[in-house]
């Protein structure tokens, strides 16, 4: 998502909760949600408004987008593998844990684990 889309997302939020949207606010939000798609963020905003009375924060959007993406990929990946053996523990398990609150770092660690699974012969592991 680019800065313009982040500003649009905040404009929609503002129409609901009267928040002040200025250049500084857009920049701060973009640091937290700029790595996400605009469409997913808009869906997350709508879901948050349906499900919560809390004042919208970037962490709400990030968490809900994680749910949206997980729901979108149900039935794909390891669960769809034709292998009967259990997936091995990630060799980078500790690094994944340390990266949990950093979406970009966590995505890198997940890709390392996917590569590990592909090397072990699992079918259906998302690219």
Structure description:
There is one protein chain. With 127 residues, this protein is an all-alpha fold. The protein has two domains: 3-72; 78-119. 61% of the residues lie in helices and 0% in strands. It contains six helices and no strands. It has helices at 3-17, 23-33, 38-51, 58-72, 93-98, 103-119. Helix 1 crosses helix 2.
Looking at this protein, list some descriptive labels.
single chain; about 130 residues; mainly alpha; 6 helices
Termini separation comes to 21 Å
Unreliable segments (pLDDT under 50, ≥5 consecutive)?
78-83
Q: Please write the string of helix (H) and strand (E) elements.
A: HHHHHH
Largest sheet: none
- What coarse outline follows from CA principal-axis ratios? elongated
Overall structural class, as computed from helix and strand content, comes to mainly alpha
- Count of helices? 6
**In which range does the helix fraction lie?**
55-70%
Measured on Cα atoms, how large is the radius of gyration? 18 Å
Beta fraction of the residues? Answer: under 5%
Mean pLDDT: 86
Task: Tell me the total number of β-strands.
Answer: 0
Total domains, how many? 2
What is this entry, summarized?
This protein has 127 residues and is an all-alpha fold.
Could you give the topology of this structure?
Layout: H1 3-17, H2 23-33, H3 38-51, H4 58-72, H5 93-98, H6 103-119
